Amino acid sequence: MFRWLSLNEGGLSPAEHSIWRASALRTILVSGFMLEAIVAIVAMHSSLDAPAVGAYYVLWIAGVSCALLAIGLYYSQRRLNLSASILIATVYATAFSIVCFVREFEISKLGYLLIYATPIIARLFFGTRLALLLMACNAVPFFLLLRNQPIVNFPMTDITLPGTHSYIQSLLFLLFNICLPLSVFRALHALDTSLLRRRQTRTELETSHEQYQEIFQNAGSPILLCDSDSRILQANRLANTLLGRAEHQCDDGSSLFDWIALDGSIRFKQHVMDDVSNLPATAYRTRDGKMVALENISATSKDHYIVALRDVSGLHSMHDALQRSQERESFLHNHDRLTNLPNRDMLRLYLGDILAKTDDRHLIALVSFRVNSIRHANEKFGAYAGDVMIRRFAEDLTERLPQDCFCARLRSIVFSFVIEEVRDPADTLRTVEKIRDDLSREMDIDGARLMVQLSAGIALARKGDLEPDDLIRRSEVALDSARRSSGHGIALFDEGDALQIRRSVEVEVGIVSALKHREFRLVYQPKVKHDGSIAGLEALIRWQSPTLGAVTPGEFIQIAESAGLIREITNFVVDAACAQVRFWLDKYGTCPPVAINLSAVDIARHDLLHLIESSCAAHNITSEYLEFEITETGLIGNEALAIRHLDELKIRGFGIAIDDFGTGYSSLSKLSHFPARSIKIDRSFVAQIGYNQKSELIIKAIVSLARILSCTTVAEGVENIGQEDFLKAIGCEFFQGFLYYRPLEVRDIDSLLLA
Ligand code: C2E
Ligand code: MG
Ligand code: MG
Fold this sequence. Notes:
Layout: H1 2-6, H2 14-42, H3 44-53, H4 56-74, H5 80-101, H6 105-108, H7 110-115, H8 118-126, H9 128-137, H10 139-146, H11 164-218, E1 223-227, E2 232-235, H12 237-243, H13 256-259, E3 260-261, H14 268-273, E4 283-286, E5 291-299, E6 304-311, H15 313-334, H16 344-357, E7 363-371, H17 374-381, H18 383-400, E8 407-411, E9 414-422, H19 425-438, E10 442-445, E11 448-451, E12 454-462, H20 468-484, E13 490-492, H21 495-516, E14 520-528, E15 534-545, E16 549-551, H22 553-563, H23 566-588, E17 594-598, H24 600-603, H25 608-619, E18 626-631, H26 632-635, H27 639-651, E19 655-661, H28 668-673, E20 678-681, H29 683-686, H30 693-708, E21 712-715, H31 721-729, E22 734-735, H32 746-754
Parallel strand pairs: 12-13, 15-17, 17-18, 18-19, 19-20, 20-21, 21-22
Antiparallel strand pairs: 1-2, 1-6, 3-4, 4-5, 5-6, 7-9, 7-12, 8-9, 10-11, 14-15, 15-16
The structure holds ligand C2E and magnesium ion (2 copies).
Ligand C2E binds at residues 525, 539-541, 552-554, 557, 573, 597-599, 629, 659-660, 683, 716-719, 736-738, 743.
């Protein structure tokens, strides 16, 4: 019963609130019900008297009160308000019954006291407002009482039952002494329980807050609690350190984006709505320069956000380094390592761009400078000096060019720059001359003074005229012709030059194929003595190309020299000449000495001796059958090496002749060092005999010189008797020329040797 009345609450939720109310209501109703029962028993005899005296209404009132209380009790938990309303109505009805139906005014007044209990009941179950209203309403019966005035007089209430007084007193006693106190006790008990619970909850809350703080502060990663406007509500130590915030700045209301910079307009809500894995892979910079990433953002139930930060400074610097190295790699891809200037590829791209951009009225000039003297620097002072020279030249050149001028290293010793919006080619020529004159003429490299010799080529193009590659090729053609010309060293592109260069390229390609397909052969031109007998033979190379036709050695030897193909040609000539000597020796038992022409490049070959000796050994011939002709110009610049190699050849018994003598301006002192056995007078002098006295004087001087140097003389290109007579008269010993023999095929030599 007690449990049914107390409805013990298990917590303090809104549901519990209704529990103590229902409990209080039940208490009142039950006690009220008991009241009715007790009153009925106590006043039994008066109730029984009521029908006897015709006061049936008393039975009605008691019955209705009991019924109302029973209904109220029935609804006490399910429909609390209805039940409470029934209670209040019952109290009013009871009071009204007493006031209206008890005839004796002094007794009926007691009914008013019942009414005064309603504000408390209303407060317990409906709140303050209704309680105040009832308190105000209760003022009406109070004033009636003050005036000692009954409310109504029902005509049938003239009978006063004998137990009425005790009945009403019991009613008041039970209501004020039992029902109301019990319900108030129940309410106060609920309040006590509530306070106790609250205290417990608070303690639990404090404990859990401390635990949360401990976890938050000591979490292994920087964590923030932010609101939806990204204001920082809380930050743990790691987060503060990472963001550079002091502890006291914790509640300054600043936004996370006040501490990290990128785009302060990012709102968390947006991130959280999106998939967190889609968080931008962005690194933000803190005020201290550290890099931070928003690793994770998760929403809390209170529209707050837990933001996990990550220090990505290390990662970022690695990323930076990687990016720098990628940039460097792409820079190196397009730039020259030595000078840091753009390379040929970059120049092509640039030219492609401006050739497409430029207007029809203007030209573009591509100027190429070649530093001719680098080869000399390399040979004399080593590759390091050459590198320094290239670097310094690149700096010197770029300093003298306008700021926005595009300058590239086209290839090893060629630098190109672009002049845009050219109106008059003559202006460009003047500009290039000025730049060339301004460039340093000398460089001091580790104490050595090096001359800077330059040539420049200029090629012009109009929009849509040429492809970048064509323009570059034209500037190189112009550069080549500038090198060949002895003029001012600057040349504008010329179509004739281009043809010549194209021919050179064709010949170069042809030589490679000729070596492979054995298209070369040797012819032999005899040298004769005064009596016309053969003193020796000169091996001369011939090339009948299937594509180019007959190409003269005068043309292809020079190309082979600059293309680095002369080695193979000389290997072939030496071997073929030795084989031929062997053939003639085998066939006729004798053979005149055969002269082989060596180019300047051959003289500098370190394996020259090896080549000659191994060839002689392979064909089993001795040195007396071979002679080597070196042009005078081939000796210049290579004197020391040439003298060493020639000395070696002389020691081994090979003959040495200086070819084309008179064209190379050799000094006497130099000449005296060459171990030459004979000197060949260049045919340009011989051709002048009879016409040019100066040439005749030169020939005489050469013959005397040869005599002083104990050399024999050979006159080249003798074509007529007049020349022969002159040469014989001045003491020239040997002759070679069309007057005697043209270069002959082997079979023709065969018939000569037979005779
Ligand atoms: P070189 O050594 O001075 O050869 C003599 C050149 O004069 C030959 O021309 C020959 O055909 C030509 N010649 C001879 N007699 C007369 C004449 O009476 N009148 C005229 N107008 N010319 C005459 P070729 O064969 O065309 O050779 C030209 C040059 O090519 C040679 O001049 C030589 O420097 C070089 N050369 C020829 N064969 C070889 C070779 O196997 N190796 C090397 N390195 N150079 C060679
Ligand atoms: Mg010769
Ligand atoms: Mg010659």
